[in-house]
C-alpha cells in the first residue's frame, strides 16, 4: 500500500515536473521566435526579402529607360560656307565674242583679277625667292607666270599684246631667266563687280566705253574711266594699259 502510494505520488510528481519543464521550454521558445514567418520547408537563411511597399513600381526610371529607336542617330550636319580668295588665277576664262554694255563688265572683272594676281607676284605663299639689285629688293614671280612667255600669255587672256607689254615693261624685269618685280604690296578699293559701262564709239574691230566704278562700301565718289577694246582673233580684249585702268 505504502509502496503503491509512493509510486503514485512519484508519477504524479513526475507529471507535474514534466508539465512545468514543458511550459518553461515553451515560454523560452516563444520568446526566441522572430516575427518573420518562414515559408514551409525553408530555413531562416533563405527567407524572402520584404515585399516592396504599396505604390512602388518596378519600371525603370527615366534615366534608365532605353533610348527611343525613332530618334535621329546623329545631329544634322552643319554647312560651312566656302571661302574664295580675292586674287585667283582663272585659266578657264573663255573670253567675250560679242561686246556690249552688259558683257563688258565680266571682261573688266576678269582683267582686274589677272592684273592683281601678277602684281602680287603670282601664287600666294609660293615664296619664289628674292634678290638685291641696285640697292632694292626684288622678288621672283611664282612658277606659273615665272617666265616672260607665261606672264604675257596669262595677261593676254583679257588684254591685247600691246596692253600686256605696257604693263610688263613698267613693273617687271627679267633676271637670271626669271621674271621678277620690286617687292611691294598694294591694291585697289574699286569694286568692278558693281561697275557700269556706256559705249562712246564703235567700229567692227574697236570699241570705246566709259566705265563708272564705285569704291568698296562707297568710301569715295565713283571713278569714271575710259577703256579701249579691240577684237583679236574673234575675242574682245582690253586695249588700254592695265595700270592706267586699275
Can you walk through the features of this model?
- Residues 1-30 form the signal peptide.
- Keywords: Signal.
- Residues 43-89 are annotated as: Disordered.
- Residues 43-86 have a biased composition (Low complexity).
- InterPro entries: Endopep_inhib (IPR031841), TA_system-associated_sf (IPR053749).
- This protein is of the alpha+beta class and 246 residues long.
- It has a domain at 104-244: Nuclear Transport Factor 2, Chain: A, CATH 3.10.450.
- Helices cover 27% and strands 19% of the residues.
- The protein is built from four helices and eight strands, in the order ααββααββββββ.
- The protein has helices at 2-32, 104-119, 148-155, 161-171; strands at residues 130-133, 136-140, 173-175, 178-182, 196-202, 206-213, 223-232, 235-238.
- A four-stranded antiparallel beta sheet has the order 1-2-4-3. A four-stranded antiparallel beta sheet has the order 5-6-7-8, covered by helices on one side.
- A hairpin with a 3-residue loop joins β5 (196-202) and β6.
- The longest helix has 31 residues, at 2-32.
- The chain is globular and about 45 Å long.
